[in-house]
Amino acid sequence: MEKVSVSILCGGKSSRMQSEKGLVLFQGKPFIEHIIEAVLPISDSVQLVTNTVDYDYLPYQKIKDIELDKGPIGGIYSALVHSDSEINLIVSCDIPLISTALLSELIMKHQTEYEVSVFSEANKIHPLIGIYSKKIIPILKKAIEENDLKMMRLLDKLQHQIIKVEDERSQQFKNVNSQAELQELNTNLIGEL
After folding, report:
1. Which of 50, 72, 138, 153 is the least crowded, having the fewest Cβ atoms under 10 Å away?
2. How many CA atoms lie within 13 Å of 11's alpha carbon, on the beta-carbon side?
3. Distances (CA, A) of 25 to 67, 182, 186
């Protein structure tokens, strides 16, 4: 299989979390470090898309958004422009439960005739855990120019594959956007121990 590059989207204003989301502590470690642990067995080509120096302590390439304030679409565009791989695993920085096994399954099930492969569970699509082809750069650029920044509308314009996860592994998709959600995650994990 050809090389996979990984881009972790560390952008976002994190207004609900009231701090840099990727650096929120979960089980004593920042979210970003949980995600890096999950992706390193898959690829040693890891880049962080961030406009802040807060992640400079990590020994990975940092890239800035080419176009500011364009949400996840802007982050994916920047990631793909800076990637030297056709196949790119894109993940957001707010999914600390994600596992190597589930990300490997996404890569394994990705079929090259599709431009994008993403997970879904219980009628919810997760566009920020996906395989994205460099071929879509012109479509992303056009969406940014037109300020058409909704991820679901982007998917509708692309040849995309949806990989369903309908068991307990779907818990790994939980993104944490607020202190309340973080508290809930910690409480639920303690309950399962």
Report:
1. 138
2. 24
3. 29, 9, 11
